[in-house]
């Protein structure tokens, strides 16, 4: 059986111009495979090239990143073993966000928690299968609440609008991937962006100012900067940053991850805010030691 693949990452990472502070965290990245050891899901819409924990470590060493949050991607489905293996080998430097369904028991979630997982992710984007079963999702969230976990939502701009009331009813921390994938071509006046700005005034909403390469018209992705700045202005204590390495399903402009790190001083010009985004906020959310 085979599935569509996607572009491999640019592993020729240059040295970034921006020097990240000590204990900086890449709060959104993935490990893929190796598929011979951790097979991809037969239900997945794509099977990417391998990008294992060793490739991720090389990237972070080049960027000067010491910590990471591994986000389970749909290509591995609910089989979180590859992510757990990478967390286990990180000597405390990694945390995780899993994918799960209502077949997972309280004991299953406790095992994931013991393995370093602190959140559960649900995909709503159409190219990855569309919205989940909302009743099943509610069941999962009730089971993880006692662990103090948060919800990570991967949405497109139209999903922000369609499911606004559903998300409003969720009484736990909600972390939005990739700035809600709001296209820069629609401007800061678009409805989805305005909804997200309003939600970021609520104490349980967080935003990942990553995915600039996904919402931008193209390199060097500067058109994404005002969108990130808008979120940071509202809630600097609830902002995360990540690379999204190895950038699955990028169709045109595969970024060099140093270019993405070099956006940080543009979206947050104050060094204290940079430290919040890269160090303090992920440490607080994911329980990294001070």
Write structural notes for this entry.
- With 290 residues, the protein is α/β, with parallel strands linked by helices.
- The protein contains twelve helices and eight strands.
- It has helices at 53-63, 81-88, 106-114, 134-144, 157-162, 164-168, 191-199, 212-215, 225-234, 257-261, 264-267, 271-286, and strands spanning 25-29, 67-71, 94-98, 117-123, 150-154, 174-176, 205-208, 239-240.
- Strand 2, helix 2 (81-88) and strand 3 form a beta-alpha-beta unit.
- The model has no long low-confidence stretch (mean pLDDT 97).
Short structural summary:
Helix content is 34%, strand content 12%. It is built from 12 helices and 8 strands. The longest helix has 16 residues, at 271-286.
Helices and strands in order, then pairings?
Blueprint: E1 25-29, H1 53-63, E2 67-71, H2 81-88, E3 94-98, H3 106-114, E4 117-123, H4 134-144, E5 150-154, H5 157-162, H6 164-168, E6 174-176, H7 191-199, E7 205-208, H8 212-215, H9 225-234, E8 239-240, H10 257-261, H11 264-267, H12 271-286
Parallel strand pairs: 1-2, 2-3, 3-4, 4-5, 5-6, 6-7, 7-8
